[in-house]
Each structure stands twice: as structure tokens, then as C-alpha cells.
Specification:
- The protein folds into two domains: about 180 residues, Lambda Exonuclease, Chain A, CATH 3.90.320; about 45 residues, no CATH class.
- The chain contains seven helices and nine strands.
- The strands form two sheets. A six-stranded mixed β-sheet has the order 2-3-6-7-8-9. The chain has a three-stranded mixed β-sheet with strand order 1-5-4.
- The longest helix is centred in the last third of the chain and has 20 residues.
- The two termini are about 30 Å apart.
- Bound molecules: iron/sulfur cluster.
- Iron/sulfur cluster (SF4) binds next to helix 2 and helix 6.
- Belongs to the CRISPR-associated exonuclease Cas4 family.
Length: about 240
């Protein structure tokens, strides 16, 4: 399938979708957003990453704030950083691209900036992989690897963009388009560990109770209900935790 330009959806929405489908709907369909310390710091980190344009460090050229898109997957957005690594002698020319003003061929390598300490976050890996899919479609070269950079620890996590991650990312893009097409916000299915990380927890009303209830009280009850042997632990729509 090839999407029209007008139908492209934000790359960053994939991260929300993988974390919680309801969160993706609240942010992107209902435009609900609540700034907490984590999101403010996260925005600052992203703004810094987008600021500087291009620079060179040895055999690495760094481009910030590149616009990406994939008509095949219906996604678009701005990257934090795309590095271009000079191909080593003997590497096939077809695995790199030509850059203006410099010799040699260069392999694109997306780097996504995240707040906090280095850790494994599947939703972040999907967002990074989506950037790689866009780069591959736009530049016509393979992007086998990228990295997540964690601002608090100043460390990178290298991400191997393997077939499984690519299939997950492609399916996430399909699900995102379904969400935007249907425009139905999923019901809340609170999960204590996930929801307490979510900046929207104070705004995400527990619809399934059918009555007003403080979020804190709701989480206590959801936690109790999701104990061993209780069917309430099931996720809606097969959603993953982060
Ligand atoms: S509070 Fe929980 S259910 Fe609500 S949007 Fe956030 S993660 Fe999803």
C-alpha cells in the first residue's frame, strides 16, 4: 500500500501506541496533554537535539532535525539525530549514500534521544525502527542498526533493527492508521506499573467504572483486581506494557 501525503501520521505516535493504545488516542485524537517533569525534560532534550543542524566528528557526520517520511508505511516526522558513518574499505558501496561536499559513501544511523537512564524500552525501539524504515525508503539503502541515547545517564543503547522488530513496527503503523481511521478512544485498562509511568494518569478517567472516581483510588482498585487469578489483568486489544 502507498499512502497519500495527506494521510501520513506522526512517527512519534508509534511510541504512545506501543505503550498504551488509549494514550495514543488521548494525545493524538483528543489532543489531551499533561506536562509533568518527565515530559518537560523530554521536550527540552528533544529541542536540544533538534537545534544544531549538521556537524562532523571524524568519520561520522551528524544531521539534526531531519524530516523523514514513508509513503509505504504512512508515517512522517522529524528525527533527533541521523548520523552518517563512513563506510570502511571493502564494504559494498551500495550500503552507503553520497553526501554533498564530502567524498566516500556513508551509512545512515538514526539516534533517538530519550529522557532518563539507559534501559530497554520496546516502544522506543519501535519508534527508532520506524525512522530507519523511512530512511531506507527515502535513501534506498539498508539501515541495519540505530541507537537510543538516554539523557540522564548520557549512554547509548545500540538497537539491532532485525526482522522481528521491523514486522512489529510495520504492524504498529497499520494499527495506528486504524486508530486514526476509526477515531475511537479505547476504554481505560489501568495497569499499575504502566499507568504510574504515564503523564496522562491524572487525566485518564476510568470509563469502565461508569462513575467518577479519583485516579489514585482507581489504581488501588485496579491493582487489587489484577491480583493472581483475577481475569481483570487482561490487556485491551493485546496492548503491551512498557
Ligand atoms: S493512565 Fe494508563 S490506561 Fe490511561 S493512558 Fe496512561 S497508560 Fe493508558
Amino acid at each position: 500500500m502507498v499512502y497519500d501525503e495527506d494521510d501520513l501520521l506522526p512517527l512519534s505516535a508509534l511510541q504512545h501506541l506501543m505503550f498504551c493504545r488509549r494514550r495514543a488516542a488521548l494525545v493524538h485524537l483528543e489532543h489531551v496533554w499533561d506536562e509533568n517533569v518527565a515530559t518537560v525534560e523530554g521536550h527540552h532534550l528533544h529541542d536540544s537535539a533538534h537545534d544544531a543542524g549538521t556537524e562532523s566528528r571524524g568519520d561520522v557526520r551528524i544531521a539534526r532535525g531531519l524530516m523523514l517520511r514513508s509513503l509505504r508505511h504512512g508515517l512522517s516526522g522529524k528525527t533527533d539525530v541521523v548520523e552518517f558513518h563512513l563506510l570502511a574499505a571493502g564494504e559494498p558501496e551500495a550500503s552507503g549514500v553520497v553526501l554533498p561536499g564530502v567524498s566516500g559513501r556513508w551509512r545512515p544511523y538514526p539516534v533517538e534521544y530519550k529522557r532518563g537512564r539507559k534501559r530497554r524500552e520496546h516502544s522506543y525501539e519501535v519508534q527508532l525502527c520506524a525512522q530507519a524504515l523511512c530512511l531506507e525508503e527515502m535513501l534506498g539503502v539498508a539501515v541495519p542498526e540505530g541507537a537510543l541515547y538516554y539523557g540522564k545517564s548520557g549512554r547509548r543503547q545500540v538497537v539491532n533493527l532485525d526482522e522481528q522488530l521491523r514486522r512489529t513496527t510495520e504492524m504498529a503503523a497499520v494499527r495506528l492508521h486504524e486508530l486514526f481511521r476509526d477515531r475511537v478512544t479505547p476504554r481505560a485498562d489501568h495497569h499499575r506499573n504502566k499507568c504510574r509511568q504515564c503523564s496522562l494518569v491524572g487525566l485518564c478517567l476510568p470509563e469502565r467504572t461508569g462513575k467518577s472516581l479519583s485516579v489514585e483510588a482507581y489504581l488501588v482498585r485496579a491493582s487489587r483486581d489484577s491480583g493472581p487469578g483475577h481475569s481483570g489483568d487482561r490487556r485491551v486489544n493485546g496492548e503491551d506494557d512498557r
